[in-house]
Batch of 3 targets.
Target 1
Amino acid sequence: MTIAVAELTADMAAAEHAALAEEIKAHDVAYHRDDRPTIDDGDYDARKRRLREIEAAFPALAKGSPSQDVGGPIKSGFEPVTHSRPMLSLDNCFTDDEAAQFVEDVRKALGAADGDEVWITAEPKIDGLSLSLRYEQRHLVTAATRGDGSVGENVTANARMISDIPLTLPFGAPDVVEVRGEVYMTKERFNSLNERLAAEGEELYVNPRNTASGSLRQKNAQVTAERGLNFFAYAWGEMSEMPADTQSGMVEVLAGWGFKTNPLMGRYLTAKGLLARFNTIGEKRASLPYDIDGVVYKVDDLAQQRRLGFISRAPRWAKAHKYPAEQAQTVVRDIDIQVGRTGALTPVARLQPITVGGVVVTNATLHNEDFIVGLDNNGDVIREGRDIRVGDTVVIQRAGDVIPQIVDVVIDKRPVGSVRYEFPKKCPVCGSPAHREINEKTAKADSVTRCTGGLVCEAQAVERLKHFVSRNAFDIEGLGSKQIEYFFNSEDPAIRVRTPSDIFTLEARQAQSLTKLENVEGFGKSSVAKLYAAINERRTIALTRFLYGLGIRHAGEGTAKRLARHFGSYAAIRDVCSGDDWQDRRVAALTEIEDIGVTVARSLIEFHQDPNNAGEVENLLREVSPEHKVAEAAADSPVIGKTVVFTGSLVRMSREEAQAMAEALGAKVSGSVSKKTDLLVAGPGAGSKLEKAKSLDVKTIDEDEWFELVGPSLP
């Protein structure tokens, strides 16, 4: 239960603020740098609003807070560009009353009397990626993303591939012009791209915004060109001279220079007029060819904008009025169970197709057994305890462009005679028992139901193969989901791939067979040769990739790195995990490693003691050689042998780059703070880890101090 800000003590406020700040920083990185948001816009906005409410009551907490940030860190690999004028973000409002208050605040700040006119523009808020275009002597010289508002990424070559962006401005334009706007992908383009990827068996993109962002930030500009991106112009940065004195006038000038501007923009004198426009655009939202998530209000007169100025990171003369999460009602036709790589049974609602926010929704995840009966992962009641049944009319919600979710059941429309859904006790694929594991820490049943079939379950086998060849594991080019499913389902022994080792014997089996893969539709001589080459490139593989590719439950990339660093070879790891004697000693030996607990240790041991797994690993080791290459750290490295933790938002490098740097210098990188931690490197927004480090008297430094410490040892 959330405590009202007015009831928070100073210590409570500081603790909650620190946790919120660290979470928001992580979400900013996921959204702005990685183009992979982990929560929807509504949940993010709620967290940001709570953060600011706490800061309003406890102003000292605002220093260094993500409430002052704009955008997020830039992506490594792009040349940084310092904006001549900062690219700021807008404050949000979410209700009609807040929008009306914005108008009232503007008029009051300007000292406008009842009869004075203060025009305000309203235009759709495009859900895309902000871009600044700099023209000198009417020629495009630089295109940069917003980045953190001060420094963005140089994407000039890619921007030149967008047809909406003029490479030159007409005669008469000022000598220096910075045009700012939004890069986006139309819904039609997005759907076509995903259809093509689906046909090729590749991973699909989640939404147009992230796809547009990723498409603009490609190393190969030709990929950007192929994606068919678009650009709306609506603002400006540095201008050697201003060609108009109003917001709307400047937008007209931009259109005259050849930029696309939004035709739904309008000017209004009253809050009533703005809200009417907000509702009209909202009614058109589903039919628009591009995604929007609100309407932006801006004071039209530029002289009035200058008088109003800025508050912290945002202008006082503008506000973004966000639309609420979109909802619709539809019927649950059926409930299917999908079995994943780890044996997790995930229920999926098959829905009567319904359009929500311009997207046709046919499926929605039901998460787990508890969610269906009306409980959350903590066992607390949700939906007032209403369970979900086949035939039910349900409320579907899309917040932003995330996966649709069922938020409620319309009991009044429940069919007579409907029955509760019985979650299966056996795997629907292999028939093995399915059960919920007991969490060792809480002594409660986990929310996920899992098949116990392991390698005998075809669903798990297929998903494990997909995991084995995935990007962070063996990363075998040419083996996507479609190809793995084809090889797995083949009845021809010379083509069939059921285990990881089968991948590496494919070429040899083909050489002895009359059935040639190159003659199979969808392949061909050239593609088969490339596939064999890609497979053979992975016969020598990094130990971390080998371990991660095995798909051991609870053992992710971090665990693979720690094991490789600690043991140095797969043989040493297997020796510790194999055999059915001295179980406690084996667990103890593994848990001595930083950040490896009892659950992970037992999972590693159980995997290696399973005869099926052990046999397959032996087959695999006949084909591949896992190697652990340790970068030789400088003899004078000040962090050799020390355990280092990174937390908060780093500016000069990504978290992954920082960890790799530390390891290259001979340090052990951990994800959590403990008594064994020697050094904590804390960036802005550091929260609970920083507090724990202080309580344990762990030495703490910031990013600049880190570079001062290790700089002399860097190659």
Note: The mean pLDDT is 84.
Target 2
Amino acid sequence: MTFKLKKIVVSLSLAAPGVFLLTSNAVQADQITSLERISVIQTGSIMSQTESEVVRPVAVIEGEQMEQRRAGTIGEALDGLPGISNADFGPGVGRPVIRGLQGSRVAVLEDGARVSDVSGEGADHAVASSTLRADSVEVIRGPATLLYGSGATGGVVNVVSGRFSPIIGDRANGVLQASYGLNGHDRRSGVALELPVSGEMAVRLDADYRNTDNFAIKGFQTIDGEGKRNELLNSDLESRNLAITGVYAGERGFLGLGFSQWTSDYGVPEADPDDYDRIEAESKRFDLKGELYDPMPGFNTARLSLAYTDYKQDEFEYENRVKDSVPEAVFKQQEFDFRLELTHDPIADWIGVMGLDYNQTKFEADAAGDSFFIRPSERNAIGVFSMQERPTSWGQFEVGFRLGYDQFKPEAQASSPVEDDSVTFNNPSIGQVNFDSNPGTKSYLNTGIALGALFNLDSEHKLRAGISRSEAAPGPEQLYAFGRHGAAGTFEIGNPDLTKETYLNTEVSLMRQQGSLRYEATAFVNMVDNFIYYLNDTDANGNARRVNKNGQDDPDGELLVYNAQDDAVFYGVELSGAIDLATQLPLTLRASGDYLRGELRDGGNLPRMTPPRVGLGADTRWSDVKLSVDYRYHFKQTQTAEAEDATDGFGTLGFDLAYTPANIKDLRLFLQGRNLTNENGRLHQSFFKNEAPITGRNFTAGVRYQF
């Protein structure tokens, strides 16, 4: 990893135009040519140089903000950004929620290629990526998500590690980091090295490790007062990441080949100290990335990305603290991801990118015995896309499109996983659902189109507007689920007859990002036809219905949920602002907030909608010390779906204290405090909110040294 030079470019791997930022670090004269080239080949645009000038909504976390947000999961790292929250399932699992959409609707990338895991097929499944080795995290919402197909209708999150950066240092360099958190005895460590072989070749090594005990909470674990007071039982975890990458960078382009391995062993927090579930997951991934400059007349860059991942996850059940010798459920997935892009020279002032992507995923999910949770299937998806932008006298205009084809090939099953044939699944909203032993091949043709504009209102204010229409195919868990998922605490019923979703998204933003006062205000409306969502079944008293592994009513069983489909609407506002005050010490005051509603158009609320939130913060610096203080309040959520419990409001207070000695400029010592008032809050957007609150008060001390 090129740690001395990578500061200059914080976005190198996202395969979409218009996402490019430069830090305030000085650029040497001999690097200017290569930087100009990178701004073209990595973003597909030489016009979009700052975040406010990008037509598509985008957020980039890097530098000091990345250090403050270097959390254990990607969802936790992004939580609190306007429009983004965390759907945790205990400290080991945290997937981002973007404007009310989560799971398989939010694409998580690592260095521009999809992260292959089964986090979209179960709320208890971790994302197979680590923020400990990330240089930055990029978030794209709105029209540009159509570049990534069905799995990105909610947004795109790209974790940038810098492993494939074409900039090679002239000597060995790297980063060492370590931290310790009091809550859960959270130990984290990481190392990254770049070893130049020559001026054009380098080998990069990355490794990080995390190990914790059970975490502390305030009060009891469940909303019913079950569990051990002040301890989140079975919340300990252990994770490892290892990567090796070779990069060759020449005058005509670069080529990188890498291997990475991610492993995680974490518990699903449960109130019973003797009977619980644990998950062991492993991902092995191979990456090939390359770029060719001036590949043919009319094109300045060809960009290629290949990734193959072999993923396996075992879920074990413990009875009387004894591990069952046979996994309760086994998830296996082999995924091949291919992406080719061509960035063309200006055509009548239009600059942009066109491309092709292909994805093949072979998925299995077997349960103990002869039953299964989701039937094995193969998915093949191919798409062509383009995004073009043009400067105007009033600002900038953008247009994009996508045409995609998704095909599912499920395996036929001889019999239903429910042994009792007398059991029926009948919900008043969707009717009777029967098991289909052979649903046959399913195909979906998906289209998408997006228009966007950036208006320069004056020298300080900009108005950004966008509208897009996109279609998305269902996921395998939505089509083929039929059975008990013990670790998640659900009995899920899919529907092979689900149709594709259609999104009509509009949004408008007013920005002022210059001077002592900076702010951004965004309003959006997302109309969705045939939206797929979890529908809780209810008993005669209106309570959530629970069943055992055979689908029979059992008060101690799993929640019975259906994959229902109906027209929905999401709408909301997002606000953020900062003001620099003239005092003896530099002082910046910050404020943020968001409001989201998710409703069925025929009436009723969608489940797990993030409640309104507001945040206040302040930053100051004295000599080599920087201090940030933040307070965030989550309002209560009473706009609940059928058989869904409301959640109370709560506030969290935290701080970040960093010391960077002037005589050792590459050393950073830090102390963080989180949930200082030790609140007992529950995240409404989480499937797990009734089973576990947020973790309690925590202090983390750490060091990061760059050499």
Note: Confidence is low (pLDDT under 50) at residues 1-54.
Target 3
Amino acid sequence: MSDTKAVEELSAAEAESELARLADLLSRADAAYHTRDAPIMSDAAYDALKARNAEIEARFPELKRADSPSDRVGAAPSETFAKVRHAVRMMSLGNAFDADDVRDFDARVRSYLGLGADAPLTYTAEPKIDGLSLSLRYEGGRLVQAATRGDGEEGENVTANARTIDEIPRNLGDTAPAILEVRGEVYMDHADFAALNERQAEAGDKTFANPRNAAAGSLRQLDAEITRARPLKFLAYGWGALSEALADTQMGALARLGRLGFVTNPLTVRCDGVPEMLDHYARIEQQRAELGYDIDGVVYKVDDLDLQQRLGFRSTTPRWAIAHKFPAETAWTRLEAIDIQVGRTGALSPVARLAPVTVGGVVVSNATLHNEDYIAGRDASGSPIREGRDIREGDWVQVYRAGDVIPKINDVDLSRRPADATPYDFPDTCPECGSAAIREAGDAVRRCTGGLICPAQAVERLRHFVSRGAFDIEGLGEKQVAQFYRLGWLREPADIFTLKARDEAGDKAVVPAAERIARVEADDRPEARLRLAEAAGLDAWDRDAVKARLEDLGATPLAQVKGWGARSAENLFAAIEARRTIPFDRLLFALGIRHVGEVASRTIARFHGTWADFTAAMDAAADQQGPEWERLTGIDGVGGTMARALVTAFAQPEERAGIDRLLAQLKVEPVEAPAGADDSPIAGRTIVFTGTLERMTRAEAKARAEAMGAKVSGSVSGNTDMVVAGPGAGSKANKARELGVAILDEDGWLDLVGQS
């Protein structure tokens, strides 16, 4: 990543552009890896990209996107299998890419626990196998359920298939806990993979690209006998729900799993501190080629399970574990063209179209080019990057996949530049709608000014609305959204929920054909007209023919439209109907309000309780002052930037009207309270922490409060229920006294939450 600008050097505008790029790339990777079992990058490349995204968000928290990859785990489970809701969420892991990252991880753990740099702290270190995560549930010692990770909350029921794997015990005997969820990895070793592909080729069947794909495809067979014939292995590394603790330490728990009949990795060791962790990493890296199975790094975990419990989890990753990944690769290829894509917020993002090249075992044909400065060989301040070498169509370029799904251009070989290559002229008009594309002072990104008239922005907003973390409407994906928009059937989210009624009435068009045609003719670009003609099923532009075709399609039942049928249309309408009831947090995230991601949506939903209370609060805070504004900005994790984005969205008449039209079609449910919150003495209460806590860190106290259903605020107001004040508490404690808010010291707090 030598030519990627360091996060600490990014301006706010550059950071915003980079976050947009990363969100798009990671979303594509999630779907390819988890849903289609066809990854478009290595795990190391994916995780490095996700790490860069998290680093930028940490430096610019106000820029965190609504579709932030930091808030996602895996991808939605396939509809092929029945869904299983995990009793304990299956998390992903944070990542480290060098020794400094590992040291930072250790420092974060110590800071959270309040441990000094010299205090003893033991970790485990184990190879990270590249396979498919699986959770096995045992009740009374018997295997009753096996589920894939899915999106972390819901996975696929593959119990019948899991029973065919020899290394998965069916019965654990009387010594097992009454309830035990064992988690591990299904994988295939190199020798078995080669033999399987040889058999597949001899039979004329599909061969697999790599062992991970083979393992995932084998486990997810509809016919369990096919799975039985595949040489799958299972290695246990953790657990979910438990009726009793397995041991006091991670190593002890793994030993207990081994005694129960599970295979665990014999290369797992206990390490006293970072130097020993790094030494073991180096040993594993040297043995990597001789292991006989694929690994992509080493996982470090805090060994003491009580400390793991205290450390807890972030939104998608545990605080007590991290994956130290191996390096990625580079390759050279020709840049054939530079295309411009327009995102949901109007950002113009350049993409390199490459002659296909294999990088780290994956065929790559696209690469990000960030922005116009990056193409020109300079950063936002005008300083040279790549020693000032610009990027041109026809260049021979080096592609680097350490952190990108669509990789980046690492360098340019000027000695192989074509004689007729010319500097790239970045467009100053939107390629989608022809509106001016403006680059404001201090902004690294050029943005389309077309707003709602820009089809690219409108389509991307609709795509976000139906995305996995939002409404997740099966059968209404990117392709269908674009098709329905261009045909005039969808203009805004509310139109999705009236589509069936309009289809039955014989008039699906929200925007009449004449208006669609007038828009593209006013655009005065042949490609705009051609896209509308293609959406209508015609090969070329003919005004009268397109108009007639659009009118015909609007009146034709969806079941009779080319590419659809009675079953697919019925399934789509059923999927839409199933989403008329939606949790508060998913609806808020679906609106695509800038800076409001999945985690923030959940936090805001839990804080306000109901949609009606939330919208009333937005109206009361519209002038960005007064008690409601202070209450909004005081929510832990919601700062001024996010709060302004929220109240602005609800204050704009056109946007608010669109939200109201959508709400008329929906039933909005409160977000689920954390498990156990019903019995919590602080559930629903607003708490402020101030001063220095001595028996736990403030971060730990906040996490504990939220896990028990409380609302954590950063400021004291008349809505505050209690203030927990440690030594050094100042203005917040004083304000609490003025308002008559209850003040607890740390001992009182621990007594209240049952941790004294």
Note: The mean pLDDT is 86.
